[in-house]
Design a protein that fits this description.
Strand order of the largest sheet: 1-2-3-12-11-10
Organism: Corynebacterium aurimucosum (strain ATCC 700975 / DSM 44827 / CIP 107346 / CN-1) (Corynebacterium nigricans)
Shape: globular
GO molecular function, one term: NADP binding
InterPro entries: 6-PGluconate_DH-like_C_sf, 6PGD_dom2, 6PGDH_NADP-bd, HIBADH-like_NADP-bd, HIBADH-related_NP60_sf, NAD(P)-bd_dom_sf
Largest sheet: 6 strands, mixed
CATH superfamily of the largest domain: NAD(P)-binding Rossmann-like Domain
Domain 6-phosphogluconate dehydrogenase NADP-binding: 98-234
EC number: 1.1.1.31
Radius of gyration: 21 Å
Strand content: 5-15%
Length: 375
């Protein structure tokens, strides 16, 4: 992918599609974002020059215009960054907002932790006990989604999948008019378009990475909406958990969704590759540690390095980082989205389903390696 660099406004430089009606009176968080935008001299923004193939498929299904001039937003350095919001903080972060966070699973909990320092946070989870660590750290616990969003200036969701979004948010008309809704849930592009059509304040902001990068503020994040101001607000919030070089703003929720699926496709198919490499090497009598060492100079090194500790027994698949159930669900969203067969994805799904049948669905997806000879 060819990239070029050019100085541009932080988090901006997107053409909003015509014919779209936005709120006449922005909410206070939007006003904060509008008031704090500025051009930072010398600020670098990397622009992929060619997303034509990906955009063509999405555009064939989407009513919205897909602009291929997406940008990877690299926030300005702490010395150049303006304070955002009222009250402002010395570290340049947006502060003092009332935020509702729905879904405190493994990833949701890590994201929500970043909000506790500067914001008034109310959390909700279907299983309340899983929200207790955040409550212990200072968050308020709501007994329902409706109670959680009452009075919120921003609503963030981190649920398991699109069906959960429909059940908890769309079917209940949960989002108050004008309140920005930032959804980090992994969904299909079609579902993202559905949610954006249902709620005009919808911003899709899925994350790329596991729990370690989430804790360290090093995740990749796609932020998709045609609304410049809501995108600015969402990207500012996402800076708390995003790597500064991996915060990517795009012009639609659907484009953000396909970006996340592409990232997880890489996980699924390279996991299948490592599994087959283990089978191949073991067929010649090689020990798993020898096989892993030999993979160091191959294209499978990333997956081998990430999941090697599980394979060698240094880590346990419970609780792990990214579950079999979650990656299997995402892989099935890939199949649903594609208009051609995805045989490598299909092979990975078969592996995940084998682990689910063995009762390992809620364990790390490295279960496909750990229990490879026990099926």
């Amino acid at each position: 992918m060819t990239v070029t660099t050019a100085p541009t406004p932080a988090h901006t430089a997107y053409a909003v599609p015509t014919g779209m009606d936005f709120m006449a009176q922005p909410s206070p968080p939007i006003e904060m974002a509008q008031a704090t935008k500025k051009i930072t001299e010398g600020h670098r923004r990397l622009k992929p020059s060619d997303l034509s193939s990906a955009a063509a498929h999405t555009a064939s299904k989407a009513p919205e215009k897909i602009n291929t001039n997406h940008a990877i937003s690299q926030p300005p350095s702490s010395g150049a960054r303006m304070n955002r919001g009222e009250p402002a903080h010395n570290d340049g972060t947006l502060g003092g907002m009332k935020i509702a966070f729905l879904g405190t699973g493994r990833m949701g909990t890590e994201l929500a932790r970043h909000l506790l320092k500067n914001h008034e946070l109310t959390v909700w989870n279907r299983t309340a006990e899983r929200a207790q660590p955040l409550v212990d750290a200072g968050a308020a616990l709501a007994d329902s989604p409706t109670a959680a969003v009452e009075g919120a200036e921003v609503i963030i969701t981190s649920l398991f999948g699109p069906d959960d979004i429909r059940e908890q948010v769309i079917d209940t008309n949960l989002i108050p008019e004008g309140v920005t809704w930032i959804d980090t849930t992994t969904v299909s592009p079609e579902a993202a378009r559905e949610f954006a059509a249902a709620v005009d304040s919808y911003v899709h902001a899925p994350v790329v990475g596991s729990l370690g990068p989430a804790r360290e503020g090093k995740l990749g994040v796609y932020v998709g909406t045609p609304d410049d101001d809501r995108r600015e607000l969402a990207m500012t919030i996402a800076e708390l958990w995003a790597d500064e070089n991996k915060l990517i703003g795009v012009e639609s929720a659907a484009t953000a969704a396909i970006g996340k699926l592409l990232a997880n496709l890489a996980l699924a198919v390279t996991a299948e590759g490592v599994l087959e490499a283990l089978h191949l090497g073991e067929s010649e009598g090689l020990d798993s540690e020898v096989i892993l060492e030999m993979l160091d100079i191959t294209g499978l090194a990333f997956m081998k390095n990430m999941k090697g500790p599980f394979i060698t027994g240094e880590r346990n698949t419970t609780p792990g980082d990214f579950t079999v159930d979650a990656l299997c669900k995402d892989a099935k969203l890939m199949e649903m989205t594609a208009n051609k067969p995805l045989p490598a994805v299909a092979a990975a799904i078969e592996r995940f389903e084998e682990q689910q049948a063995m009762g390992h669905g809620d364990q790390d997806f490295s279960s496909i390696f750990v229990f490879r000879n026990k099926g």
